[in-house]
Structures are given as C-alpha cells and as structure tokens.
C-alpha cells in the first residue's frame, strides 16, 4: 500500500480483489477490467445515477469560488480518530471568529471522511454517526451558519469512501446524497476518488456536478481525483477546484514535491476554477516555521485554496501568525485570479511572479536548498513597466522600501521572501531597500577562527546613509570585524563588505547554531531603517583521514520523503529504526543509508576529501514498486548521477570526485513518476579523505 500519509494508507479500489490505489503521481496500475466491473459485494458496479435532462451540458453556477476557497479541513490533524466530532467542528467555528480568521477571509469549516455510519438506512440515506454528531448534521450546519461561516462535507465518487472502515460512497447515489447535503445546509463538497470501480472519471464527477446543481443550493464542488486524469484539462466547467496531486504529508519533501507538480499548471487556474495542491500542513509540527512560511507563501502565490489542516484548538501563536497574515492572504485572494508563474528555478533558487489586479506583482523568492542563497530578478522581468523607481513591500516583515528595479534578497535555507512590487509613483516616500549577504562557508571547527564576509548592497534609487553591519552569535563565540563595518553613504548598487573572524568555543558540540547578520541605515530624509538576516552556522568535526563508511559519520542535515533516513538498514516506514536489512535485487548489504525520495543527506568534508563511492538501487522491501535516480553533489554542483533505477536493476556503482568541496550531498529524486514506494539504498557509501 502507499505509505505517504495515513490517508493514502486507507485508499483502496475494491474489486474482486483489494488493490491499493496510490494517491498522486506514480499511481498503481488500475485493476483489470474484469475486477473493476465488480463492486465490494461482488455484484455489478453501479453506474452513476441518471443526471438531469441537461446532461453533460449542465454547467456549474458562475458565482461561486471566484477566489480560491479558504477554510479548514480536519483530516490532516485528526484523521478518523474519535476527537473528530461535533465539538471539534463547533470549536473550530468559534476560533475562526475569536482569532480573526473569519475577518481574514476563512469561511469554510469542512468535514472529511468518517462522519457517517458504515451503512445507509433502509431508505438508502446516509446516516451521520450519532456518537460523533449526536445532534445530526443540520444542527452542525446551523451552528456554523450562525457564526457567518459555511459548512463543507466529504464523500467519494465510488462505492465506499477512502477509509478502511468503508463508509458509503456516492457512486450510484448522486442525486439522493446531493439532496441530503443540500437539505442539511452544506455549502461545500469534497468528492474523493476511492473505490471507483473503474468507472470513467469524467462521468462520475459530472454526475455529481449535475446532482448538486439540481438541488438548487449553491455548493462549492471540490474534485479530489488526485490528478490521475489531468482534471485541469477538462474540469473547468465540472468543478470549482480540482486536486492536481496526491495527498500532502507534513514534511518538507512532500510539500516541495507537490508544489513542483502544481506550479506548471498556472494557465488552467482562474476565477471559479482552481488548481488544488491539497490542504495546508501549517502548524502540524513536521516542518519548521521557516518552512511553513514557505508553504503558505507558495500556496498563496499559486492562487491555491487555503484550507487549514491543523487543529486550531492546539495551535501556537506562530501558527496563527502565519495563517492570519492578511497581506499574504491578499496575494492568494486577488480578484484577477492569476496563478503565479515560474520565471526561474536554477539550482533551487526560484522566482515565481503573480500578476495582481492593481497592476502590481507578487514575487516569491524561494530557496529550495539547504543553505542561504541570493535570489534576484528585476521589475522588468516580472512584467512591470519602466519607471524611475518602484515600491517594494515585504509581506512577512510588513515593511515598504524603494528599489531602482532590482528585486533581490538573500533567502535562508528552505525560506521564501514574498514581496509585492508596484510602479506606483510613491517609491520616493520609502527608505531604500538593501540586500544583506554572507560570504564564506559557515562551518566552524571548535577553537579555530573562520573567515566570513558580510555584504550590504543598496538596491534603492535613493542613497542609504550611515550604514553599519553587525554579526551576532551564541554566547561564548568570538566575533570580530577585521575590516570597516560602517559606511557614510551607499549609492544605488553600491556595497559595504566587511570581513569577520568567527570562532566557536573550544568545547562547542557539533551541531547547528544561529548567527544573525544585521544592518542599520538611514534614508535621505533621516528615517531609520534596518534589515536582519538569520543564518545557520555549523560546528563540525574534520572528516577522518582515509576511507570511512558514511553511515558511521555525522551528517550536517537530512531531508527524507518518508520517515527518517536510516543507518545500515533500509528506509522502512515512518518510524525511526523500523528499517529492514538493506537488500537490492536480492543482494544484502550490511552498511549503508536507507532513504526515500525525495531525499538529501549532507556531510561536511572541509575541502579535505577526494572521492565518494557507493552501490545504489531500489530496496526490495516494496516489491516491484519504486523508481528513483541517485545524485552526488559537491558544493552545490552535481558531480555524478545515475539514470532511473527500479527494483529490477541490480545495485549500480556510483562514484564522484569531490576534491576541494566543503560539503557533499547524497540526493535521491523520484525518477519522474512520483514518490510512491521510492525506497532508495546507498549501499556501502564510502568517503575517502
């Protein structure tokens, strides 16, 4: 079974045998036609219920979801657990009002799977679970509506929903179920794809569209068929939004993979018809706040639905700060309805620009990599007209600056700087924008001085005056400027570069430590301005001389598509230490690293190593599933790679010259077909120094 999320574990196509249906790219092949003709009871698969006389020509109402829907869905935080109940739903509605989320634009409180009893009643009607919803669904809808909010519900375009319990699906019951939803006061339907019996997707989703329309109640219609049949090509008059990918998981690798699948589909999005890269994971704990800000920024610049997936009753202030950022939400909700388009993505440095109704551009400078990167574009490149200057608004810092036309920032690892840039004629009222950067490798061996260079560059049309730069670090660290750290004035494009000697204490433990680079300056009018760049320094141990098994060495960082990277076993499942003997095409290896695409394992080599060697392949633990490619990177440059490997391939030798590199990364990609079951083994990886 697919193992990316608890939701995908529960997804099944039920025919004469139970076959796992894998959500997202890289899905398992459909069951044979003979199996697909049978439903879970062994009878003929029900056809979609007859549609109204207008048939396929019936269209959606044109006045719904004119901006991407905003709200909440319980699945990512509760799944089918008992805590998903009437009390929770009402509590979320209360929080929407109390915490200002309703005022920020959130309006839908959506129920996912497991709200019903496993069987219909004697009349074929759906029955809400009386333990979870003792007052019935209409009472829940009435409560939500009384708060000025709307209620959403879930079912599947199959004989059963996606839960392993097997709640009733709507295939063959479209008209009856749609009318029940309307009678309860439902405002939004998420329509999943499980247990679909091989019935044509377009027919199934059109049948429910027409059934919803026949009720006369305005209901936003969310198609959740995981992008299997490219709904962006045919569903603009079938649903108000359609999932473009499989289910998201609460980790960086999953979020990044889904973002990359959704970004190329910009031309298909617009008012009333949106690409849906799945719900938000912000606040669920599997990513850092920096990564969650990237998640929220990129979903907003992609004009994606913003459906909160964390339990707001337990949310931190940082979570509320992220999901409640009205300036970022305004990018998502811009009435022009354009999805942002990728302008560049070289070496993991992304520039995505979104045209706004007022003529401005929202610009996301997104850093995919594991270290701070300078990412730049220009006002002309993002589509703005020629002007003497531009107003540049930082939507996370809530500060405005002027720029002569360069749009640039040093972006922390996995971070996003989200800007709104305007040729509005008011730029001269703002202080000049500056870019802060730090040169040199921030790797510190205890007790040894490391040379770093800070750089302050004026991007503004006006000069920056009385400029100063500082670096601060942990208590006990010695940080000293070895060249001037002030400048009386910096004109457009001019920089202040300062050399620094940075020494970690002799007894500092290996690991990551925070450094902060700051600059303070004044605008021509004398107004004070400042900019701060948070960075990460690593206290490291020099790699040992000779040849070392890399599974015995400490790594700097890891990113993994499913669970943690494992040492000397396969990846296993989501828990630490649950791997199996590392086995590639029947051959067992005692030493190595068990990973899962998309994955990156980074080591400090300090310029002292020459070569990395390994035997690589797909682990046998998932049978014939999985396809991956392996890469070795040295200081941000690809040094070696394989083609796409599957379980039928024997272990393939891979080696790379890494001479002089400060860091080495072992990377696994998904082979181009999604990440399902992509268990990848670095067998016998060896670092020679």
Description:
A hairpin with a 4-residue loop joins strand 11 (341-344) and strand 12 (349-355). Helix 7 packs across helix 8 (201-215), helix 9 runs parallel beside helix 10 and helix 10 runs parallel beside helix 12 (326-332). The chain is built from twelve helices and 41 strands. It is of the alpha+beta class and 689 residues long. The model is unreliable at 1-43 and 51-57 (pLDDT under 50).
**Unreliable segments (pLDDT under 50, ≥5 consecutive)?**
1-43, 51-57
Main pleated-sheet profile: 8 strands, parallel
- What is the percentage of strand-forming residues? 25-35%
Question: Outline, from the CA principal axes?
Answer: globular
β-strand number: 41
What is the overall number of helices?
Answer: 12
* Strand adjacency order, main sheet: 9-8-7-6-5-4-3-10
- Summed over residues and divided by their number, the pLDDT gives a mean of 91
Distance between the termini: 42 Å
What is the structural class? alpha+beta
- Helix fraction? 10-25%
Q: What Rg is obtained from the alpha carbons, in whole angstroms?
A: 27 Å
Write the layout of secondary structure elements.
Blueprint (H helix, E strand, L loop, with lengths): L5 H4 L2 E3 L3 E3 L12 H4 L33 E4 L1 H4 L7 H13 L2 H4 L3 E3 L25 H11 L3 E7 L17 H11 L3 E5 L8 H15 L4 E4 L17 E3 L8 H11 L11 E3 L12 H13 L4 E3 L8 H7 L2 H7 L8 E4 L4 E7 L5 E7 L5 E6 L11 E5 L4 E5 L2 E6 L4 E7 L11 E6 L3 E2 L4 E10 L5 E9 L5 E4 L4 E5 L4 E9 L7 E12 L5 E12 L7 E3 L7 E3 L6 E2 L14 E3 L2 E3 L2 E5 L2 E6 L6 E8 L8 E8 L2 E5 L3 E2 L5 E6 L5 E7 L9 E10 L1
Helix pairs in contact: 7-8, 9-10, 10-11, 10-12
């Amino acid at each position: 079974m697919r193992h990316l999320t608890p939701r995908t574990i529960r997804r099944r196509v039920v025919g004469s045998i139970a076959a796992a249906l894998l959500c997202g790219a890289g899905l398992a092949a459909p069951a044979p036609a003979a199996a697909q003709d049978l439903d879970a009871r062994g009878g003929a698969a029900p056809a979609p219920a007859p549609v109204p006389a207008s048939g396929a020509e019936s269209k959606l109402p044109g006045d719904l979801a004119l901006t991407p829907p905003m709200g909440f869905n319980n699945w990512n935080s509760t799944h089918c657990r008992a805590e998903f109940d009437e009390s929770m739903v009402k509590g979320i509605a209360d929080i929407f009002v109390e915490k200002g989320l309703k005022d920020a634009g959130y309006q839908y409180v959506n129920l996912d799977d497991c709200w019903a009893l496993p069987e219909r009643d004697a009349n074929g009607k759906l029955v809400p679970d009386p333990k979870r919803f003792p007052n019935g669904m209409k009472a829940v809808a009435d409560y939500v509506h009384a708060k000025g909010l709307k209620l959403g519900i879930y079912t599947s375009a199959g004989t059963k929903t996606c839960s392993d319990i097997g709640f009733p699906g709507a295939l063959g019951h479209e008209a009856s179920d749609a009318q029940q939803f309307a009678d309860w006061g439902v405002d939004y339907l998420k329509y999943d794809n499980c247990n679909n019996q091989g019935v044509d997707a377009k027919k199934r989703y059109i049948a429910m569209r027409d059934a919803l329309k026949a009720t006369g109640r305005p209901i936003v219609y969310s198609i959740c068929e995981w992008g299997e049949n490219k709904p962006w090509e045919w569903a603009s008059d079938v649903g108000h939004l359609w999932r473009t990918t499989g289910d998201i998981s609460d980790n960086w690798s999953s979020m990044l993979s889904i973002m990359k699948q959704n970004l190329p589909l910009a031309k298909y999005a617009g008012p009333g018809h949106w690409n849906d890269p799945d719900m938000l994971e912000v606040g669920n704990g599997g990513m850092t706040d920096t990564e969650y800000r990237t998640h929220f920024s990129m979903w907003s610049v992609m004009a994606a639905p913003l459906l909160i997936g964390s339990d707001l009753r337990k949310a931190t202030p940082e979570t509320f700060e992220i999901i409640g950022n009205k300036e970022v939400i305004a990018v998502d909700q811009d009435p022009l309805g354009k999805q942002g388009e990728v302008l560049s993505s070289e070496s993991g440095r992304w520039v995505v620009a979104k045209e706004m109704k007022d003529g401005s551009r929202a610009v996301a400078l997104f850093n995919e990599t594991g270290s701070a990167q300078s990412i730049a574009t220009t006002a002309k490149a993002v589509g703005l007209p020629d002007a003497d200057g531009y107003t540049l608004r930082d939507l996370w810092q809530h500060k405005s600056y002027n720029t002569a036309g360069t749009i640039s920032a040093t972006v922390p690892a996995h971070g996003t700087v989200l800007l709104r840039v305007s040729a509005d004629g008011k730029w001269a009222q703002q202080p000049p924008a500056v870019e802060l950067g730090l040169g040199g490798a921030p790797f510190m061996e205890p007790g040894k001085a490391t040379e770093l260079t800070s750089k302050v560059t004026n991007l503004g049309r006006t000069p920056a005056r009385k400029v100063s730069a500082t670096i601060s670090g942990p208590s006990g660290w010695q940080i000293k400027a070895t060249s001037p750290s002030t400048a009386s004035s910096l004109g457009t494009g001019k920089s202040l570069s300062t050399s620094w000697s940075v020494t970690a204490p002799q007894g500092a433990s290996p690991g990551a430590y925070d450094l902060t680079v700051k600059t303070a300056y004044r605008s021509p009018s004398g107004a004070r301005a400042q900019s701060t760049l948070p960075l990460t320094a690593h206290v490291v141990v020099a790699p040992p001389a000779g040849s070392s098994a890399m599974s015995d060495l400490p790594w700097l960082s890891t990113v993994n598509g499913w669970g943690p990277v494992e040492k000397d076993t396969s990846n296993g499942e989501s828990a630490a230490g649950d791997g199996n003997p590392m086995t590639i095409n029947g051959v067992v290896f005692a030493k190595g690293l068990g990973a899962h695409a998309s994955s990156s394992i980074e080591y400090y080599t300090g310029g002292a190593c020459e070569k990395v060697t390994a035997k690589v392949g797909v682990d046998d633990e998932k049978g014939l599933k999985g396809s991956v490619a392996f890469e070795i990177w040295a200081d941000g440059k690809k040094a070696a790679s394989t083609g796409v490997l599957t379980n039928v391939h024997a272990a393939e030798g891979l080696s790379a010259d890494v001479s002089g590199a400060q860091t080495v990364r072992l990377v696994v990609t998904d082979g181009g077909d999604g990440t399902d079951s992509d268990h990848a083994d670095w067998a016998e990886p060896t670092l020679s120094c």
